[in-house]
Amino acid sequence: MTAMRTALLIARKELASFFDSMLAYLVITAFLGITGFFTWWFGTDVFIRGVADLATFFHVANWSLFILIPALTMRTLAEERKTGTLDLLLTRRATPGSVVLGKFMACLALIALTLACTLPYYATVSWLGPMDHGAVICGYLGLLLMSAFYIALGILASGLTANQVAAYVIALSAMALFHFGTSVVAANTVGATGRLFRYLSTGTHFENLGRGVIDSRDLIFFITFTWAALLLAARQPARTGARHA
After folding, report:
1. Structural domain count of the chain
2. Taking CA atoms, which of 22, 75, 77, 83 is between 20 and 30 Å from 166?
3. What digits encode the pLDDT tens for the residues 32-49?
4. Cβ atoms within 10 A of the Cβ of 88, count?
5. Helix or strand or coil: residue 160?
6. Are 57 and 146 in contact (CB under 8 A)?
7. Which domain holds residue 211?
8. Residue-wise over 117-135: b if at least 16 C-beta within 10 A, else e?
9. Measured distance between the N- and C-terminal CA atoms of the chain, rounded to whole angstroms
10. What is the pTM of this model?
């Protein structure tokens, strides 16, 4: 059995468990409720702004995913470690990399499905007036890439402990560092240091994509840091397997 096939089997099992435990329905409902409320009813909603775009949605979705993704990922490896099923997986020819990749694909698939459920927002706003379709497509791409990075961080945090609450706190703290911590430092520093922290800010790259601009630097940032977080996460179950070999 190849590593990719194993990862796909794990992803399918994990995705099914999300729906069996109602977690998927809670994530989708919470995301649609929060983004829908602010996009259509409250604050700078579409009708108040009088502009046919999804700027409000993307802003709210950005923060909603920041809160929801740690809740989605906190159980991925922590629960397996606590129940002992992680060791069982690793003794059945499932490599640490395939376990982490499978968990990652399941979480990303659920987030992609959640974002797909908001496509009626896009259709409705497009019907209300002329809009920049390229900016909307890039905005969705930015949400997906940012989610992939945060999911990888969440899985890494989940691999560090068997306590799901601790995994949530660790993941949220790590994500906060990239979500707004780096922006705060960048705003108060100049020169090379300011540019470095600005580059490390997920907000910087998300805003670039939200403007409809696809820059290779933004893509490289998300892909590189997501891959690095997954590699680090794969070392956690590997250590567990080594201790029980």
Report:
1. 1
2. 22
3. 999 988 888 876 666 776
4. 12
5. coil
6. no
7. 3-243
8. ebeebbeebeeeeebeeeb
9. 21
10. 0.89
